[in-house]
Amino acid sequence: TSSSATSKKKEEDPELLKCESMKLQGNNFFKAHNWLDAYDSYTEAIDACPPQSLRGIDILKEKQEWENEQHRQALDDYRQQKHDTKCDTSGKDEGTNDEQTSSSSPKDDNKDEESSKPSFQVPPHPHGDKYLSVYHCNRAACCLHLEQYKKAIDDCTIALLWKPDYVKAYMRRCHAHEQLEQLTEALEDVKMAQTLDPRNAQLRKDQQRLQRKNDEHLEKLKEQTMGQLKDLGNSILGNFGLSLDNFQAKQDPSTGSYSISFDQGNNGGGN
Questions:
Q1: Could you tell me if 174 and 158 are in contact, meaning their C-beta atoms sit under 8 angstroms apart?
Q2: pLDDT for 197
Q3: Which terminus of the chain is more exposed, N or C, with fewer CB under 10 A?
Q4: Which candidate, 158, 146, 166, places its Cα nearest to that of 39?
């Protein structure tokens, strides 16, 4: 009954009919590999969807501003916590009694409550999950073919704000992240998609592939960082005619700790 009522409402709403007409036109362009015209058709569907005052791009900006504010607040809380800890330590050094020290406990409890902040609340849209999410996700597909990966990410994110269980949007955003070498974000998206569609064999393969690719990328970054640190160390030690090769780290098998020994004769020259 509800589905028939929704269908009847759509038939009676000329604006929604226009949106769906633009979407179908976009689908035809897309099938013909005419990405630019398909992009324009989906954009027309998005712009025509009522109410025009509630746009996805505005909600995305609002979400980004909210996240920036949360980040600033977290930094302020961290700095305040560091300051309070420093004051508590100073008070103990000056002979502060246990009664005074324990008075900070309720404040710490309040901070724990404040740390669990609610997530961004998406403004409700009467056609967000059924229509706009599809239009934005379809436009993201055009952006992928046009190699406009940042725009594809934005469109998929807007689609997911209105339809959080949209597997196709997660996968298109995953592909865009991968093309931009944002492998951690790509892996997060494919994992979410697989959680929503656990029987999808292709998603499992994509997750395994991205996991390997991400691990290799992190290992490469680690090697580059270690190489840069070694070059820095050798450049400093070179002023004294030494290099890191003059120092050997040996692990104690019984404790797991390391000791550093100096070898005057092992002069690697810093290479």
A1: no
A2: 97
A3: N
A4: 146
Give per-residue pLDDT as tens, 90-126.
666 555 555 444 444 555 555 555 556 678 888 888 9
SS3 content of the chain, % helix, strand, coil (to 5): 75, 5, 25
What does the alpha-carbon distance between residue 28 and residue 49 come to, in Å, rounded to a whole number?
A: 20
Higher pLDDT, 75 or 188: 188
First-to-final CA distance of the chain: 77
To the nearest 10 degrees (0 to 180), the angle between helices 14-31 and 35-48 is 170
pLDDT digits (tens, 9 = 90+) for 120-176: 888 888 999 999 999 999 999 999 999 999 999 999 999 999 999 999 999 999 999
Cα(150)–Cα(179) distance, integer angstroms: 10
Non-local (6+) Cβ contacts of 35 within 8 A are 29, 142, 145, 146
Q: In terms of DSSP bridges, do strands 258-262 and 247-251 run parallel, antiparallel, or are they unpaired?
A: antiparallel
CA atoms within 13 A on the CB side of 97: 1
Distance CA 240, CA 234 (A): 10
Question: Cα(208)–Cα(190) distance, rounded to whole angstroms?
Answer: 10
